[in-house]
Specification:
12 helices; globular
């Protein structure tokens, strides 16, 4: 890895960030020995225990998301002033950075003579939709059916829209996979060895059987028909609609992603 980098893991949301942040916290010392400083944060112990956290870039990500908040520049300068050749921050709030935040990142990285390197994971839109909907149902009392939820969210799941202000930094975008995710991130960082530590549990696991049953019942009531096509309890017609909508966007994004972002056939 070239020296003098600011490395950002930015998500995407619902693409393994909690598991990766657990992995990063567990291996902060191993990374430090290989020239990568993963700054400590007050949720590190929870992350090492396999609990969901917002990552060590939480405060900076919140300061930069949407429009930068007062003090964001000073906070960024403080982070960039660390003597380590590589500074590594992880937080999904970086995903929400807009034009002004991206400009500030670019200005301060140039001032500190650091390159910006970005790692992001994407997943096919039906999987992304299901995971996001399950999270809303589980933690926020979501009352909409999955189709209404999709119609409100579908523009945000176009990769060029989601990453529009980060593409200038030529991010390394990879396909999310539930297995081998930590090893994939380690390869990107250029770290390895037998001393790497993996999360002790499955971090931020999916829905329980009871929660999945509740989701199924809610969508059956909303749609007026029992829907039971995984991964999102959507009909084949809904899959076809999503495939038609996202296909041109996903194909156009091939130049930016390691792999092909394609909508799988319903199982």
């Amino acid at each position: 890895m070239p020296e003098r980098n600011l490395i950002l893991h930015i998500g995407a949301p619902k693409a393994g960030s909690s598991a990766l942040q657990s992995f990063f916290a567990l291996n902060a010392e191993a990374m430090k020995r290989q020239g990568i400083f993963y700054p400590p944060f007050n949720t590190d112990q929870a992350a090492r225990e396999g609990k969901p956290t917002n990552g060590n870039g939480h405060d900076l990500g919140r300061a930069l998301e949407h429009d930068p908040r007062p003090g964001a520049r000073e906070m960024l300068r403080t982070r960039l002033s660390h003597p380590s050749p590589n500074i590594f921050l992880s937080c999904e709030y970086f995903w929400a950075i807009k034009q002004l935040g991206a400009d500030l990142l670019a200005e301060e990285a140039e001032r500190a003579a650091r390159e910006i390197r970005i790692l992001a994971y994407l997943r096919p839109q039906p999987d992304w939709l299901f995971s996001g909907y399950a999270h809303r149902l589980r933690h926020h009392g979501e009352t909409r059916g999955i189709r209404e939820f999709y119609l409100r969210q579908r523009e945000k799941m176009i990769p060029q829209v989601a990453l529009q202000f980060m593409l200038r930094f030529k991010p390394k975008v990879r396909l999310y996979r539930s297995t081998g995710l930590c090893d994939d991130a380690a390869a990107f960082l250029g770290i390895g060895g037998e001393d790497l530590i993996y999360p002790p549990v499955r971090v931020n696991a999916g829905m329980s059987i009871g929660e999945a049953s509740a989701m199924r019942e809610r969508n059956a009531a909303t749609a007026g028909v029992q829907i039971d096509n995984s991964p999102a309890f959507v009909t084949p017609e809904h899959y076809a609609e999503m495939e038609e909508f996202y296909r041109p966007h996903n194909e156009a994004f091939d130049q930016h992603i390691d792999g092909q972002l394609r909508i799988p056939q319903p199982r």
